[in-house]
Specification:
Helix content is 75%, strand content 0%. It is an all-alpha fold.
């Protein structure tokens, strides 16, 4: 079965999963202490938003190297999210286990997309 190329970033499963993670982060951080509003809450939300935003931006880039770069930035932001989940858990603000599993899934997908793009980049044309 041949896969049809996505015409919009919203069609990418990795973007859909990253967007769902971002929505979950917003819901999670609603219960954080008010004194964290401009600290951990803001940082976690910003990092979470960066993941699907960079996937979207990279999707529209014409050059494969640019696409790979934006997907890599999304991976970096996702690692930042992972750290903030650890911090929120350790501070007792929330149980982040399910969110971490959700982030791990996005990470595996980003890694697979990146690997596929890098393979395409290094495969000689016929």
């Amino acid at each position: 079965m041949e896969r049809v190329a996505a015409k919009r970033f919203q069609e990418l499963l990795v973007w859909q999963k990253a967007h769902q993670l971002t929505l979950a982060v917003y819901r999670l951080t609603e219960v954080f202490p008010k004194h964290e509003l401009f600290a951990l809450t803001s940082q976690l939300r910003r990092a979470a938003i960066s993941v699907p935003a960079n996937i979207a931006e990279g999707f529209r880039k014409r050059g494969l190297k640019d696409k790979i770069r934006f997907f890599n930035i999304a991976e970096g932001s996702l690692e930042e999210v992972h750290y903030y989940f650890i911090l929120a858990q350790d501070l007792g603000y929330a149980n982040t286990q399910l969110h971490t599993e959700q982030a791990n899934e996005v990470g595996r997908m980003l890694e697979a997309y990146g690997k596929a793009m890098r393979t395409t980049l290094t495969t000689p044309s016929s």
